[in-house]
């Protein structure tokens, strides 16, 4: 979702503190950071894989990411992993959770275009139950040979996410895409007897056998969405629909509130006779 162009929509929500947390794949983290280091290019879905391979270019749908982008990412992230390992060694009983690693990377990137930057700045945790499944995992794999010993504690993040759900007065979930992140978010809401609100946005159908294809009513049967809720599943292209949803909800609320505040200030300092 970050690779395909939804990055700015997600960043807007995080920048203006309109959500409590994010659950994402490793790609959502690393592509956000890599785009701060080097650009992604528009190509075509039909470009030949073998030709791109010879040219050192990786295809994500109709987007093109040169190998050099990942080289820059490696040069940037390795020294950070070195520092994190040193901090772990000098402090007893210290390990890193995926959300803490992502927060650290967000602070280090220091780029206002980044989702991770705003999440770190606003103390919004980004959970990633499959952090090693991607380029970031490759970097950790390489690092484990160069300087072994970095410990990642997934269970502590699980406790943190589930506790956030349990303690929430109300819980609303927006699932863009699916897979591991969809199940992880829904399962956290199982701990509180279900989410109060739920919106699914993807193109998956039940007959494809994927978790992404499961309809909200299936989650109701598990206690992951409350029976009293009115969940919605939108079958559609998230690259088209998510920006529209954000524009008509989060962005509209933000700008209406901003305009109201400006009006109030004007009336306070320039009272209408």
From TrEMBL:
SUPFAM superfamilies: DHS-like NAD/FAD-binding domain. Its EC number is 2.5.1.46. Gene3D superfamilies: Deoxyhypusine synthase. Its cofactor is NAD(+). Pathway: Protein modification; eIF5A hypusination. The keyword Phosphoprotein does not apply. It catalyses: [eIF5A protein]-L-lysine + spermidine = [eIF5A protein]-deoxyhypusine + propane-1,3-diamine. GO terms for molecular function: deoxyhypusine synthase activity. Keywords: Hypusine biosynthesis, NAD, Transferase. Belongs to the deoxyhypusine synthase family. This is deoxyhypusine synthase. It comes from Cinara cedri.
